[in-house]
Amino acid sequence: MRVMGVDPGLTRCGLSVVQGGSGRQVVALDVDVVRTPADQPLPQRLLTISDTAEHWLDTHRPDVVAVERVFSQQNVSTVMGTAQAGGVIALAAARRGIDVHFHTPSEIKAAVTGNGSADKAQVTAMVTRILGLQQKPTPADAADALALAICHCWRAPMIARMAAAEAMAAEQRRRYAAKLKAARA
Questions:
Q1: Catalytic position from the list 7, 54, 119, 144
Q2: What SS3 class is residue 66?
Q3: Is there a catalytic annotation at residue 7?
Q4: pLDDT tens per residue across span 101-159
Q5: Rounded Cα–Cα distance for residues 26 and 53 (Å)
Q6: Which residue in 58, 63, 68, 166 is the catalytic one?
Q7: 51 carries an active-site annotation
Q8: What sign does the CA torsion over 115, 119, 123, 129 have?
Q9: Which tens digit of pLDDT belongs to each residue from 53-91?
Q10: Which phi and psi angles does 127 have, rounded to 5°?
Q11: Omega into 37 within 30° of 0, i.e. cis?
Q12: CA distance 40 to 179
């Protein structure tokens, strides 16, 4: 499975692509950070992020896109910018029929380090070790984007099992409701 990991942000937006193999084997294919100037108008910043994401989607052709879910932060404008950056990328993926999954920071940290409250240094160190990189990915947004992609590769089988179980439960509810309706008639 090829996963594009996205650490959304207006000033720095981390992008990565990894290839998941059997078991927990993951190989990094590409990583970069899109930067936009803070003094640039918001629509232009979003366009830069969108154009770059679209280029990545067309070049790397991921099977799925994993985006960090915006979680409560102190600064409302930072939350809005992060959500908007993630939104333009999710939209670009949706236009191509690519599934998008959102993961919380604690899910990502727990998947990569085993500790949902790990700090950035721990996440970066584990990403470096998991991917067998010669040096740590920098800046932190690049490491975070790789961590997102790794997280999704490792969580995807469980996500698929949960979706199948939910579909089966919905079908059983539908059949039961139909059976009750028939019994009343």
A1: 7
A2: strand
A3: yes
A4: 999 999 999 999 999 999 999 999 999 999 999 999 999 999 999 999 999 999 887 88
A5: 21
A6: 68
A7: no
A8: negative
A9: 999 999 999 999 999 998 666 677 778 888 999 999 999
A10: -60, -45
A11: no
A12: 61
Across 36-170, where does the E strand assignment appear? 64-68, 99-103
Element (H, E) at 26: strand 26-35
d(CA 66, CA 70): 12
How far does CA 136 lie from the centroid of its chain? 20
pTM of the model: 0.86
Dump pLDDT digits (tens) for 27-49: 999 999 999 999 999 999 999 99
Pick the catalytic residue from 99, 141, 144, 171. Answer: 141
Counting beta carbons within 10 angstroms of the beta carbon of residue 82, is it exposed (0 to 12), middle (13 to 18) or buried (19 or more)? buried
Catalytic site includes residue 30: no
